[in-house]
Amino acid sequence: MKSFLITLILAFLTVPGVASAKSPAEEHEEFLKNLPVKGMVTMVALGKKTCTQCKMMAPILEKLEKEYEGKAMIVFINLLKDPEQQYVYRLKALPTQVFFDPEGKEAFRHIGFMSEKDIVAQLEKMGVE
Question: What's the pLDDT tens digit per position in 75-87?
């Protein structure tokens, strides 16, 4: 019985992708490292879930993330969860929205609340329909 269990465990560990599966924390870290998304306009909004302006923007970002799926990447980084990102994006105040062109170069930066209309206008200015 013991050898059967050992064989079963070894067989399970040799299935491609099973033993090397990443934890959610590792996947999140990899996602952050791959921002901005190459080949796609990316908007990175940075703030804290406790910030009043960030709370006001949350439904806007969720809506735009769905509307622009496949056309542009809309991402919110919660600095309560990922505080080191404030240094990556050289933040001066919250919330901050950083827009990147498809090559990954910063094209526009805004500090403070940004309305849906203004976000859409910036995306359109960058060629996103």
Answer: 999 999 999 999 9
